[in-house]
Design brief:
The complex is a heterotrimer of chains A (292), B (298) and C (415).
Chain A (H helix, E strand, L loop, with lengths): L13 H28 L4 H4 L14 H9 L10 H31 L5 H10 L5 H15 L5 H25 L3 H9 L4 H9 L4 H16 L3 H6 L6 H9 L8 H29 L8
Helix pairs in contact in A: 3-13, 4-7, 4-10, 5-7, 7-10, 10-13, 12-13
Chain B lengths: L5 H39 L16 H7 L2 H32 L6 H9 L6 H12 L5 H7 L16 H26 L3 H9 L4 H12 L1 H17 L2 H6 L11 H11 L3 H29 L2
Chain C lengths: L1 H17 L4 E6 L4 H16 L3 E6 L6 H11 L7 E4 L1 H9 L7 H7 L1 H4 L2 H4 L3 E2 L2 E2 L1 E8 L2 E5 H7 L7 H13 L3 E4 L4 H26 L3 H4 L2 H16 L9 H9 L3 E5 L5 H6 L8 E5 L8 E10 L5 H15 L1 H11 L2 E2 L11 H16 L2 E3 L9 H15 L5 H15 L1
Parallel strand pairs in C: 1-2, 1-3, 8-9, 11-13
Antiparallel strand pairs in C: 3-11, 4-5, 6-11, 6-12, 7-9, 7-10
Classes of the chains: A mainly alpha (292), B mainly alpha (298), C alpha/beta (415).
Chain lengths: 292, 298, 415
Amino acid sequence: MARASQDTAVTTGGPVRVGIYLVLLLFALFYMLPFFIMLVNSLKPLSEITGGNMMALPQQWTIAPWLSAWSTAQIGVEPTGLRPYFLNSILTVVPAVAISTMLGALNGYVLTKWRFRGDTILFGLMLFSCFIPFQIVLIPMAMVLGKLGLAGSVPGLVLVHVVYGLGFTTLYFRNYYAAFPTELVRAAMIDGAGFFQIFWRIMLPVSGPIAVVSVIWQFTNIWNDFLFGASFGGTAQPMTVALNNLVQSSTGVKEYNVHFAGAILAALPTLVVYIVAGRFFVRGLMAGSVKG
Amino acid sequence: MASHADRPDLRTRLQDLIPKLVLSPSVAAMVVFVYGFIAFTFYLSFTDSKMLPRYDWVGLDNYVTLWGLSHWWTAVANLAIFASLYIVICTAIGLTLAILLDQKIRGEGVLRPIYLYPMALSFIVTGTAWKWFLDPGIGLQNTMHLWGWESFTFEWIKDRNMAIYTLVIAAVWQTSGFVMAMFLAGLRGIDNEILKAAQIDGASNWNLYRRIVIPLLRPAFMSAFVILAHLAVKSYDLVIALTGGGPGRATELPATFMYSYTFTRNSMGIGAASAVIMLMTIAAIMTPYLYAELKEKR
Amino acid sequence: MRHLSILAAFATLTTGAALAEPSVEVMHCWTSGGEAAALGAVRDAVVAQGVAWIDAPIAGGGGDRAKTALQARIAPGNPPAAMLMLGQNIIDRANEGMLGNVDALAAAQGWDAVLPAAVQEFAKIGGHYVSVPTIVQRTDMMWLSVAAFDAIGAEYPGTWAGFNALAPAFEAARIIPLAHGGQAWQEAYMFEAVVAGVGGTDFDRQALVDLDDAALRGPQMLDVFTQMATLRDMVDSNAPGRDWNLATAMVINGQAAAQIMGDWAKGEFTNAGLVPGTDYVCLPVPKDQGDAFVYLVNSLSLFSQTDPDQIHAQEVLASAIMDPAVQVAFNIAKGAIPARTDVDVSGLDACAQATLAAMASNDAGGTAVPTFAGTHAANAAIVGAATDAITEFCNSDMMPADGVTLLADSIADAM
């Protein structure tokens, strides 16, 4: 099966290596800069932001913006902050990620190990479904959800996210399983193993890395989704809607520090997922890395 | 009661059926929620739907109106510019960073999450942060002035002709790290024996990469292209958060155009027509590409 | 029979849920500061009557995102109880039969007598009260910085020519003559203020309400665009994309001399602790062709409901909105003028008092015009097309004559 990250056979000399490190560090700076600015400015009182240097460290450190963003900022008529919406997001994201990942794994398994006529076309059709702009599906989806009696409910929102995530999860698992030797599956079939037995005993145990990729991708997309959450969330609106309300406030002083604190708070779960599972991310994407 | 000769038949038939059964919910979902809705939108584009879907046929009227709107032409041109720059630059940066990181770099464990994390942020957050950063009054230009570099100007976001490029910058920042991860995985999957053999034959590093490594990365290129193209087409939140479509309508994209006409201007028929054009363009580009790639994967 | 009793038990359980505390779900885009406080006044009154308030705020796009979410609620037949809607959107939805009415309540409380004709036009559609007006806002206002005018020792302008003449003096004193936020909707509001000011009420009606092509291409429109071009030159280079309240902030701290903006700007001044007359001046934009008043009615529209509890909750909401005490509290928080003409306005500041008087006189004199930029005078498609042309003009160096043509063509195409 896939070997863990191997060192490349390419060798590079001294001055080239210095150049490499320089380029890498410059890019690291490029990626860190906006986050650094958001973080630094979320710890300043508002007076330091307006008219101040955005890159300067706070002269007066304060975590008041964070407290405000969490529990007292105006989100609607009520000054509730982001806190109540976190649970809504979690209730939607966890089932949606689990279901779409599982279905993606099964789909990938079928499309690579149980070939039949037209399966490549089916896969192509599923891939194409990744491109459908979500604004198109709003109205018809609302009508369908209404007919199913799921309008404005968490299960309805989970359904929507699962359906539109299937294309991606199937893509990931299908590419991953394509590299898995079919001989093993054939051997198991000859031994009398059935469809699901092979899946549980052979495919799933080695699917860890790609499952991580799928989970990270789905978690990020669903957690950060605004359109579906706002339209189908009903009274259980996800956190992105609350964040949007926070930063799009149209009157009053723009409390940039609260906005940035809120933005970072909203991103924390995904950031944590990325950092914790990140090292498996590259491993998981290593499709086709089977060595003899 | 099944005879001994029947059992393998039953089992084989079941074996044939189960995979298709397992696949069928997903296929059903695709058919209804993707292709069914596309068909619905297609139909709507031939009706005079305003605020709500209406089913009175008006033929090609919406399309005629659509192509008569300079606003639409701007959106289409913007998409061409944005998508091509975004895809090319992300791929280039992703590939470069992946190749560099693959050179047995110390601290890769630190650098990789730094490159990857922007993907974790929602587009609303990215747009807001970059809008701030690019604003001449409070952002980069202001900081440069405060640091003494008085003549520094960076007002692209306020300039009708340059604002679209600020979109590219923000979008590239968000996803190039992810593309890097895809290429890095691809690089790590390349068999070292091939490289060693080429090295013995006297190939330089440059040729090594150009002739051997990059062609072997074709699957990664395909995945990257799919991911980037879909993000480019769907770009809505980023545009709204960063420029709001402005200055004027200079950074409108088909996604924002479609949204605006369908929901804000109560012109669902025209919105549907623009959506159909978007989908046809995507199909025109993706279908040959997918066909070529998937044929090989057999 | 067992089946029937189980069924009955099940039915009781489900309707039991409905028999819980009556509630009214209100969808809106007011998520901050003064606006939220204003809506909070209504909420308090509703809650005091024993009806729960379910808040459904979705900010952004000046109400666009909320509109989208609303569409997603209407499609499956599950609309909220009430929604903040503007102008023709109310009329469109009433025509589609989506809105319920509170005629009985209106008759009982005598709304016809206390609401100006201008307001009723957007609350009472087809003879039915489908929408309950909260406040009236004036969009053709100018906000001036006392400090800036003192710096060059100038009088407050009574004519456009007078205002234009002051610009060089301001620039010499390193003050930006016009603070402006370069967003399409702001440019649309500025445009209609200029139409009312330069062209007058009759022209405004012909061009923006009747959408008469001759008026749209006529010499008065050319004057309007010429004035827009002059205003365009007064704006600083950082204007594109600027939020409206940041432009107001420029006037508040004296960086800029004036802003043309609806009277929701007053809330910013009040929040900054400024006093009208002393620190800032609120004036209608110069009127070269006689008095005019461009108004915008804010109201909560009621969606048709079948459940009697829901209907009752809506009536409580409507009653709360029209309650004189709530109208006053709403206005003090929002900074506008009440829709009712018979409330105690002594608590309102000088600007609001002036606006109130102007509203009364203009309504009586027939010179009150519904806002075009706020989708009262024309529907969303036409306003959108016109805004495209206006923002194109404001963000380029197009000649006024070309602007006229572009606007007239855009509107003609959208009709």
